[in-house]
Design goal:
- The protein is α/β, with parallel strands linked by helices.
- The chain is about 20% helix and about 25% strand.
- Strands 3-4-1-2-8-5 form a six-stranded mixed β-sheet. A four-stranded mixed β-sheet has the order 7-6-10-9.
- The longest helix has 20 residues.
Length: about 170
């Protein structure tokens, strides 16, 4: 009996520890190795949004894996580049994107296959490479249709983002 109890405790501990480190993502995200780019703390973009070094006021990289409680945890699977830009960036809210596709405005939105867990994020309109409507199936375990916004090109999705590409 004692052995079963110890086994149960270790199993529960392992499951809770594993659950805390998992990212909410679509199956397409498994091959992605590009970091997420956050502009001015809440705009998700791609590297093409920065047209010259004069645009950049400040830039940083996340070094440590944050705790699950941070509002950007789910975006850290491949790292995050933070940039503060001097110029204004046109962006769309998650609710606006859902309304455009005739979905409930609170419908989940994914970027590059990773769930945006907070509705404070917007997506830079000129960074949207593709908008994908993903229907539930056995592979993705979704319960409703969701939007997946690609800020990465097809080549970046397949081959990754080399440091040399980040000019």
């Amino acid at each position: 009996m004692k052995r079963n109890y110890i086994f149960l405790v270790f199993t529960l501990f392992y499951l809770s520890a594993s659950a805390q480190d998992s990212f909410n993502k679509l199956p397409q995200a498994a091959k992605i190795s590009c970091p997420m780019l956050l502009i001015n703390e809440h705009i998700i973009a791609n590297k093409n949004i920065i047209t010259s070094k004069e645009d950049i006021e400040e830039i940083g990289v996340i070094k440590d894996k944050p705790s699950r409680e941070t509002h950007f945890y789910n975006l850290t699977a491949n790292g995050i580049l933070f940039a503060k830009l001097k110029k204004e960036i046109a962006s769309k809210t998650q609710a606006e994107l859902n309304n455009f596709l005739d979905l409930d405005e609170n419908n989940p939105v994914y970027v590059n296959g990773y769930l945006l867990e907070h509705d404070t994020y917007t997506i830079a309109t000129e960074s949207i490479a593709e908008v994908e409507l993903v229907a539930p199936n056995n592979e993705n375990n979704l319960t409703e249709k969701v939007i997946n916004i690609w800020t990465l090109t097809q080549e970046e999705r397949e081959n990754g983002c080399a440091l040399s590409q980040m000019k």
